[in-house]
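MODEL INPUT / OUTPUT PAIR
PAIR INDEX: 1
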Amino acid sequence: MGLIAGGFNAVAGNKLAKAGYMGNVGVTVSAQGPGCNVTTSHGYSFGNGLWMGGGVGLSFSDYYDCIYIPVFAEMKYSFTPERKVSPFVDCRLGYMTELDYMFGYVSPAVGIDINRFSVFASYDILSNQSKIAPWNLNTVHFGFTFNF
């Protein structure tokens, strides 16, 4: 990743190089059976590669036969925000709900920002601590976002 990122310089590039509002809209697909997520996040870029915000979305899973609504806080760090291509780490923390259950939700991710787009892989960890039916769901997702 470092060699790829090292070859590009930003002209108007990565939104994380500028302080101020930044949002995104993204889609992910599950590697653990049919399913996808559609999310949007909004927050503040500090101009040094650090971004913090929150988001909401819809998660469709044929594998688990349900629809979830994730609500989360998010933090992202881009390692070389002054370049058009930059590796990043990201983490979401919040809840996912569906009709019968509410899950604690953690989703760490790694990826690459390419100008105003991002591609990434994430690992969703969902934990339901209900006394009636405690269980966990863990899935790998591959995603794409448009940053604005």
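PAIR INDEX: 2
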Amino acid sequence: MRIIGVDPGLRKTGWGIIEFKNNKLNYVADDTISPSIKVSDGERLLFIKHELTKIVSKFVPNKSAIEQIFVGYGAGSSLKLGMARGVSMSVLAEAGLNINEIAPKLVKKTITGYGSASKQQIISMIKKLLNIIPKSEDSADALAIAISSHYLSNNII
């Protein structure tokens, strides 16, 4: 089972792919989609769509997971996050993938055991679980989302 996790954002969209084979967790890939800040929101969204489509086509995941919106950032930020999330979900749905939406606190709790874990705690656990150094904080979050999706859907935690 190959799962892509997506941590959406208009400035940075993290993605990470993991695979479960023979009851073993394996790292496949991770990175961040970073559209230019000099272009319009529409152009950023189009860039995210094209890049995420390439990633899904290249790695051919069986499932997908995306972080739910955390509304505490303010209305403007939440709306922009929602746009990036919508484009990401559209790409995943077009690829025929089931999309598991997971709350940020649940991802943190699943990965670290603590629902208010810091970015550094997430990165530390990703290093331990996958024996890699994630390419960015955003891709570490995406890997955590993918791992959480598998654990939660299989009642492993």
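PAIR 2 NOTE: The radius of gyration is 14 Å.
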